[in-house]
């Protein structure tokens, strides 16, 4: 096969058109298909961890390679280009990613605010239309592996890829010696196609900053979930299982679904308008993320969601919580009555935000 390396001089508008065209393509029929992309309640794609080889229904894939933390607009363009290549070649589409995040390996656990910990990342990538997520363990062996060995042993030997798509700033191999240009040249030698996607600007109108996970992290650390959504191209969301809490909320008239977020989460503590999805149904709600200073100022941060117009038992259920708008910072009130009064105001404000949100 020929290698096809698209240089970074390609304009962003052209890449955006390519992604839009790729999104209109029907998905390749698989033995074990997953749901259509962009459906809010689709099944998550299968996750293949450190495979020695791939199952027959995922053989000879086109892979989009990256960390994909946040699954932002730039990642969407990379995966859209990979999807177009996969459709043209008649091959399955996989996202090839790494766990833990390489920075966490080199610096230490929790060094990176994970926008999409592993489960959320798989879900977000599934909504981009991937057929499978391949996760490679990032440890000393992979970190010290020369770029050529990564290509020969993993991309060709274990995965048998038909093509690869990467972003303009993707590097791999020991000392980050493997550049996009290196990958394109390796593709020519090993017989797989390569496409390199240029930077995607923060605004469709061409703002001077490229879309980057760090910008979304900064927005969330400031509580600006609207800006984060603009950068990501979708509302930032978390996934987790509803756990038991102190059950104080129900005594105040605000029973909550409690979710412990990833320890790396550095979302600003405060009150948010949210959407909670459970069992394929989405409900509006208002959420507090923080330490609950009025009643318990020393516990670990916890996400507590009061779900509007819902009755039922959520304990033990997996839920998705999408953040729509910032309401206020977390406060310590002089009494429980003052806290309840503020919560009623928050509830009304959240309903207003959700009514106005797309």
Write the layout of secondary structure elements.
Layout: H1 12-23, E1 47-49, E2 62-65, H2 73-89, E3 93-99, H3 102-107, H4 118-127, E4 132-137, H5 140-143, H6 147-158, E5 163-167, H7 180-190, E6 193-197, H8 213-221, H9 225-232, E7 237-241, H10 248-251, E8 257-259, E9 270-278, E10 281-290, E11 302-307, E12 318-329, H11 336-356
Give a short synopsis of this structure:
This protein is an alpha/beta fold and 358 residues long.
Supply database-style keywords:
6-stranded antiparallel beta sheet; elongated; 12 strands; 6-stranded parallel beta sheet; 11 helices; Rossmann fold; single chain; alpha/beta; 358 residues; Elongation Factor Tu (Ef-tu), domain 3
Task: Calculate the terminal CA-CA distance, rounded to whole Å.
Answer: 44 Å
| Strand tally | 12
- The H/E string reads HEEHEHHEHHEHEHHEHEEEEEH
Number of domains: 2
Q: Sketch the major β-sheet.
A: 6 strands, parallel
What is the average of the pLDDT values? Answer: 85
Shape: elongated
Fraction of helical residues: 25-40%
Query: Under CATH, the topology of the largest domain is which?
Result: Rossmann fold
Structural class, judged by helices and strands?
alpha/beta
Strand content: 15-25%
Computed over alpha carbons, the radius of gyration is 22 Å
CATH homologous superfamily identity of the largest domain: HUPs
Major sheet: arrangement of strands: 1-4-3-2-5-6
Highest-level CATH class of the largest domain: Alpha Beta
